[in-house]
Every structure is written in C-alpha cells, then in structure tokens.
Amino acid sequence: MIQLRPITESDLPFLRRLYGSTRTEELAAVPWSAAEKEAFLDMQFHAQHVYYQEQYAQATFDIIEQDGQAIGRLYVDRRPDDIRIVDIALLPANRKQGIGSMLLSRLLEEGTRAGLPITIHVERFNPALTLYQRLGFQPIDDYGVYLLLAWQPEALETAVSPHTSLRSAE
Fold it and tell me: How far apart, in whole angstroms, are the C-alpha atoms of residue 68 and residue 32?
C-alpha cells in the first residue's frame, strides 16, 4: 500500500539519501573522490531543502511510503491559480513500477475537481519527462535546462474515478 505522510526532522537522512540517488548519473562523469561527491551532495541537498521550505512555505512536504517504508517524496504547492508539483522523487528500486504514475494521476484528479492546472518544472534530460508527456503535460515555458510543463483539467479522461484524498492513495 502506498501512503503519504508529512516529513519530519527525522526524515532528513532519508531525504538526503533520496536526493543523492537522483544525482548519481550526473555525478558519475565528475572526476571527484567519493568524499568530494558526498560533500557536494550534502551542500546541495541542504540548499534545496532550505529553499523549498522558504519558497513554498504553504506546500505539503510528504514522504511516500510503501508498506510503511519510506521510498520517496512528494512536495506539492496548492496555489490559487494552479497546483504546483514542487518535487516528486522515488528511490531507484521503486521507479518504473507505476507508483509515480498513480500519484500523479491522483493529482490530476485533484486538479480536475478544483478546475486548476497542474504545473511542474522538469529538467530536459529527466527520464520522467516522457511520463509527464504521456499524462498530457505540455511545455509552457523554456528555462534552458528546465521546462515548465502544465496539464490542463480537461486533459483528464472521464474514465478515471475521483478520489477524495491524495494522502489515502493505495
């Protein structure tokens, strides 16, 4: 069973490990020692964590759990004009199993009920870009390395049943 719960201070080591797992390929090409890579990841994770907490103060910052074990994070900022996915990440062992698709589908259902678009910034080389495109996200702005994607409520097929709470995702 997949569930969401708010992050706590005790989740920071897991979140740091998760963050590192999202940078593995990128850092493989860098000629640094393991210690240098770890120091870099520590600094980058801390900077990102602080930035997200400050810039998205009203957002939900959730741990994704599968059968009680932390496997990822989902940060969502519900704003008056859109629902912004600040970040979604899963540990490598939990990717490509439909978990991300299921969580994103629940957000699309929420957007449909609220009549709001869903937006997300995605790096051009992120393998999840194809998932977003498959779900109907379209680029609406280009920031060089990042694309701003948006999904419009009318893009959701009527065959998907609504759920009342993303936190109760199964």
Answer: 36
The answer to whether residues 71 and 65 touch, using CB atoms and an 8 Å cutoff, is: yes
Q: How many domains does the chain have?
A: 1
| pTM score, whole prediction | 0.88
Q: Divide the 170 residues of the chain into consecutive groups of 10 and give the mean pLDDT of each group.
A: 97 97 90 96 97 97 97 98 97 95 96 96 91 95 95 64 42
Both tokens of residue 88?
């979604």
Query: Are the C-beta atoms of 75 and 56 separated by less than 8 Å?
Result: yes
Residue 155 DSSP SS3:
helix
Domain that holds residue 75: 2-168
The tokens of 75 are what?
């940060």
The CATH code of the domain that includes 49 is: 3.40.630.30
